[in-house]
Amino acid sequence: MTVTDTTAPTSLDEAALEQFVHQAVGELAAGISGLMVHLGDRLGLYKAMAGAGPVTPAALAARTGTQERYVREWLSNQASGGFVTYDAADGTFELSAEHALVLADETSPVFLAGAFETIASCFTDHDAFVRAFTTGEGIGWGDHDDRLYTGALRLFRPGYEANLVSAWLPARLLR
């Protein structure tokens, strides 16, 4: 920094800087983990693990027609993020029944894989967002990456199916 740099702070709060760096790194980790969730959903990895018990990377790769090396890396990411468990003694990974409801069961009212699909669409739409910010023009609903629509459908469908007829419509009629 030079003395004429008017944007430079006169003093830094080192603790605040360190805290923010940790926060930003956490956001980076969440971003890459979100991509990994989308990959696991798209490749059928979660569905293949649901109810299967402990699996090796080789077995999961064979079940899904994917490459063991990449599946091993994906599983390691998922274990480090708490999405699956890892048993070091036998080198296996497992998707719990609770996590399967969120990541593999498209009929579950707590299924969220579609949300990760919609987020993936936002990365594809990045240039459109930049144009909107710089020009002030909007983005037409039909101009988004298709994963926005398919992900939103997959995200909201289970809740609608679980509640529309049994809870929401009767509640509306009671008004």
Per DSSP, the total helix count is 8
Q: Assess the beta-strand content as a share of residues.
A: under 5%
Please tell me what the overall shape is. Answer: globular
Structural class: mainly alpha
**Reported CATH architecture of the largest domain:** Orthogonal Bundle
The CATH fourth-level homologous superfamily of the largest domain: Winged helix-like DNA-binding domain superfamily/Winged helix DNA-binding domain
Low-confidence stretches: none
Largest sheet: 2 strands, antiparallel
Share of helix, binned: 55-70%
In whole angstroms, the N-to-C terminal distance is 65 Å
Describe it for me?
This protein is mainly alpha-helical. The protein has 2 domains: 15-105, Orthogonal Bundle (Arc Repressor Mutant, subunit A); 106-175, no CATH class. It has helices spanning 14-42, 45-49, 57-64, 68-80, 97-103, 113-124, 126-135, 147-173, and strands spanning 85-87, 92-94. Strands 1-2 form a two-stranded antiparallel ribbon. β1 and β2 form a beta hairpin. The longest helix is centred in the first third of the chain and has 29 residues, at 14-42. It is globular.
